[in-house]
Amino acid sequence: MEKLPTAHFTLATAGHVDHGKTSLLRALTGVDTDRLKEERERQMTTDLGFAPLIFKGEDDRPEIIAGFIDVPGHGKFLKNMLAGVGGVEIALLVVAADEGPMPQTIQHIKILSLLGVKGVILALSKVDLVGSGSGKKTVEESEEDCRRLLQDYGLALLHCARVNAHSQESVQALKLDIERVLRGLPRGESDLKEQAKALGTKKAGAAFLAVDRVFVKAGYGRVVTGTLLEGELKSGDSVYLTGVGLSAAARVRGLENFGRKLEKALPGQRLAVNLTFKEEVALSRGVIITGSEPQTFGGILAVLQDAEGGKLEHCKLPMQVKIYHGTAEYPAYLRWLDKRQEGGYFAQLAFQAEDGRYRAPVRLQDRFIMRWGETGSDIAGGTVLTGDRPTYLKRHAVAPLLSALAELSYQRALDLVLAEYPRLALQEAELSCFLPSSLEVRSLTKANEIEHLAGHFLSYARFEKLKESVKSAMHKQLAAGQGFVVIESLRTAVCPFLAREVFGEVIAAVLADENMTKQAGLERQGDRIVATTQSGVSAEAAALLALVDEKAILEIKELAILAGLSLRDAKQFLEAFEKREEVFIVAYDFAASAKEIARAHKILGKLWQSKRDISPSDFREAMQISRKYIMALLSFFDDRQVTRRVGNGRMLLKAPKAD
Fold it and tell me: What class is the 462-539 domain?
């Protein structure tokens, strides 16, 4: 039977100072996580410690490596605690049975909840100090208090154990409980059996590891540690390191997982990564290691959840805050808040230190913790929704976009962004500040919703409107009589800001339209669109001209209906014919043929010669058309200074051309 792959889990301890987290881990793993001299002297954890707990596998049971991160419990070292719980799925909450939940217990539970930790294993420690009798009730009360707290903050209680770090039997029972919980989790035994065959063929994404410790090892050089949150990492890989004021390339010289050498690391593994650099680089906790050059942002739009309930509402903005993301701490300014209907707030945050603005390698949909106030005790949790807000995204569009992103409605978010983008077609790379890099944008281009043209995206509604504009402009230019349209001049007239390759796709779509090709007889020849009809104008325009000649004079809207054209297209064609003096637009709303205008001018001449006055009634009797056309024609000739109104009649200023 093929050996099942090892399952890796990262767990963080949580709980109040002196409740026995480090002692319990030492009993469970045999590792003293107080690695610093001052920690051992003071018997208090001040920084992160690390220890593995390995559960052996069998033929049908995979090996499990649980990597523990021991965090400080003292409020003074909350910054270090936050650096240890980023990306953690499960927490081992240690609460002294004789004291129950204390201030840092509650604070840690809030943080775990805000970071989206899936569940908690509760260890009621120091049960040996409680005794029996009335003391037993104290243990039960402590357990009930813990259960209530976890429920209040939406954390699943995976298991509750009562332990004594000095009792081997108690510690062994907790080990078995932890193994049982881990094997029952989604990435546990059953899932691993299904994934065993696929591991060799599944393509992994880019690596993402947040560094929580940096040191130099003799004979090896620079070593960093952290949990691989995404992708895979192999010995020999080229990687990027990014942080505040840092951007550097390196090569992975070697990988270890709690002392075991690896050729390839997978998500969930605690790693020691030996790096080599071409140049000396200053590394520290908070640096991000990625497999591809990471995206960085100077600010973010996020959804915030106030852990304290209502404190954010009373803040004076802008306000200086600290952002904890991964293992890093970023100083920032909270610029504005907008209360969210579903609860919480939408917020804009700008990364800004005392020496100026900088860019941070945060990822969309990542969770973070925000602290503010004089003591930093005020806490909120956030989720990154977008990166830097583009200038074209106006305030009225921000809330609907953030709502869509908060609800993971990426189709709606993409529609909103494309509807706001002034240049119509947005490149896929430009969408990276709104949509996670792991999202396949092309999967969102559903029929009749989004068009994908030459590596750009635009909404279907805008695409259809753009095609109509191109058609109208094309007909107008063709109606001028040249018989062809230069594509670049068409782009300049319709949408000069649109990329040429995208406009080329639009032209292709217009020419592929069945109505266009059959009726207009158009084809692309190099950089031109050529009308293949003999008259040099489109079939639609020619039909409209023939209709005007037939009717002599008619309202434009009636002509449009008879010709089967939109009113806009009909007007554009008529304006083009007017330039060639084949048609005349009369009093804005009517169109008359050149023959009809010439006939009317001659009648005006005859009336003036015989009566030295032109009355509307005489003109109507001579023309034999309705009064509305007569008044329109008289207004037309007045505007062209052919006639001038005198009293109730008119005088002739320009004689008609002789036959």
Answer: mainly alpha
